[in-house]
């Protein structure tokens, strides 16, 4: 077996589906199926079997994947070393969800570059499911997400908790309040996160518990767009308090906005994760330590 064939087997194991694995590997599904049959014929064993709608490893396949994993890890480290030799730079591949595309991310990356000019940080923005696949595949070294990734192959390096709050414009009746309840927000126009995010569910749950469905004016995964809409139109924006603060501090156009608490405050979370048993290189260790320090200073409570 060559490295390419090992990657085929590993991707099918991770996804459980030939079609999805083929998409991630950028080949056609028939070509992947043909390759697996050729591998099975050469080895004289059957690698996968059906379990419901998924393809799972056979006992022989499980034995093989235990031998494949360290080879793929060694090859991944080899590729990184070659790139370092070619460019005289070390690399960290950093992934985060659109939810975390904020001034904090930009300012942290700038500060890290100032402290470690020899380390190149490659940035990937994607959904949490895609980031989980990439970190397990070794394509990403570290991620920042709003939920723990439910995979035994991924460890949380550090975790943080803070309050969800409201950004309110100066024309709003609640502008001078210290806090408001979801009941009091009935009748407000909500500029809010898209429904693929955890915060969306928290907002909907709070409104429904108060006896109403929110009137949604604008939706986006980007807090900057939501705050801009809140500035120019009547309405409110409910978001992670540190993110609201970071955006108001970074953008003069948002200076008129005020942060008002929600009583009781919904909680928001941030998790910095990496692949379990990953080789913690000098550059990865520096990145993990510095982003943890930055988030500790930016948020309310460190929980991990």
From TrEMBL:
Keywords assigned by UniProt, alphabetized: DNA-binding, Transcription, Transcription regulation
Keyword NADP recorded: no
SUPFAM superfamilies tied to this protein: Periplasmic binding protein-like II, Winged helix' DNA-binding domain
Pfam families for the chain: HTH_1 (PF00126), LysR_substrate (PF03466)
Domain HTH lysR-type per the UniProt entry, residue ranges: 1-58
Signal peptide: none
InterPro entries to which the protein is assigned, alphabetical: HTH-type_LysR_regulators, LysR_HTH_N, LysR_subst-bd, WH-like_DNA-bd_sf, WH_DNA-bd_sf
Family: Belongs to the LysR transcriptional regulatory family.
Name of the protein in its database record: LysR family transcriptional regulator
